[in-house]
Amino acid sequence: MIEKSETSFLTNFGGILPYEKIIYVTKLNSSEVLEKLSDVTRYQDEINFFQLFERHNKAAYIGSIDGRCFKIRRVIHYKNSFLPRISGVVDGKINGSKVTVTMKLHPVVLIFMTLWLITVAVIFSGRLVDILNGVALDNGAIFIPAIMFIVSLLLPIAFFKYETIKSKKFLAELWNADVNT
Question: Going by CATH, does the domain composed of 2-106+164-174 fall within 3.30.310?
Answer without folding.
Answer: yes
